[in-house]
Amino acid sequence: MPTASLDALRDRLRQLQRVAVAFSGGADSAFLAWVANDTLGPGNTLVVTAVSPSLAPYEYADCESLAEQWGLRWSAVRTSELDRPEYVANGTDRCFHCKAELMDAIGPLAAAEDATVVLGVNVDDLGDHRPGQRAAGERGAAFPLVDAGFTKAAVRETSRELGLATWDKPAAACLASRIPYGTPVTLTTLDGVGRAEAALHRLGFRQVRVRHHDEVARLEFEVDDLAAAVARREEVVAAVKAAGYRWVTVDLEGFRSGNLNPPTP
Q1: For 25, left (φ over 0), alpha (ψ -120 to 50), or beta?
Q2: What CA–CA distance (Å, rounded) separates 37 from 174?
């Protein structure tokens, strides 16, 4: 895999000519959206945010704000993954059905502009359990960050050099990723997780996950924040219980992205 190169990324985007960027507001998709818009211009760059109960409201607000700040030609499209029984069942292939729904929603917008759908998948993502990548690839999506050799660290470093506010944004993922495989994904559960995390963000914790275990919320904070979380346990417990949980626990191992995923071979 080549060393990350901004020039290579711009060249890859020029090869594609017209793109529709799937834009969740995270560091990866934000970086890709900014570079695509800067390289190809708004006329050739459509930036699309998929809106559903699995997208935290504060993430949608970030997308809207960034689009305005950066002059992106931005659109929001509603997706209906909860209408797919395979998604609701929450097997280990849940992300496949989520990305299939995403492509079904963005695909027609891209086709109307003769554009290629591009996702902010980076090199590090290739080694994780990401069945959604397969669904997107099978439906014609391209992964320019992978083509240009960008790892997660390279995305953040290059974003910092470009002055993008998202360079140090905490890792984000859809709210369904907080639900263990085999536990059905429901609107009520997604809402509870989203409200609990939003409340913890308001308390000042930037990187946090609320892992859903029925009536139990297992909270993952950055290791450096564990002491503060325990010291403020009454506030933390009250915030999470207000979102509908009966018991609140803190995971002493701290935040680990994707820790509910099955082990990769």
Answers
A1: left
A2: 24
What strand order describes the sheet that includes 73-78?
A: 73-78, 45-51, 19-22, 116-118
- What does the alpha-carbon distance between residue 133 and residue 258 come to, in Å, rounded to a whole number? 15
Eight-class DSSP state of 261: S
Structure tokens at 2: 């080549």
Q: How many residues does the chain have?
A: 265
Rounded percentage of the chain residues whose pLDDT exceeds 70:
95
* Long-range pairs for 177-182: beta carbons < 8 A, 24 or more residues apart: 177/258, 177/260, 178/209, 178/210, 178/211, 178/212, 178/260, 179/90, 179/212, 179/260, 180/90, 180/211, 180/212, 180/213, 180/260, 181/90, 181/91, 181/92, 181/94, 181/260, 181/262, 182/90, 182/91
Handedness of CA 194, 196, 202, 203 (dihedral sign): negative
| Residue in the structure block whose two tokens are 């560091």 | 27
What distance separates the 2 farthest-apart alpha carbons in the chain? 55
Using CA atoms, how far apart are residues 207 and 131, in angstroms rounded to an integer? 24
pLDDT at position 261 is: 58
Mean pLDDT, rounded, for 226-247: 97
Q: Read off the pTM.
A: 0.90
Q: How far apart are CA 217 and CA 189, in angstroms?
A: 11
Q: Where are the alpha helices (DSSP H) in the chain?
A: 6-16, 27-40, 57-70, 85-89, 94-112, 131-138, 144-147, 152-162, 187-202, 226-231, 233-241
Query: CA dihedral in degrees (157, 159, 163, 168; nearest 10)?
Result: -70
Whether the predicted pLDDT of 91 surpasses 70? yes
- Residue 188's closest CA among 229, 148, 244, 149? 244
What's the CA angle centered on 188, arms 213 and 241, to 5 degrees?
Answer: 60
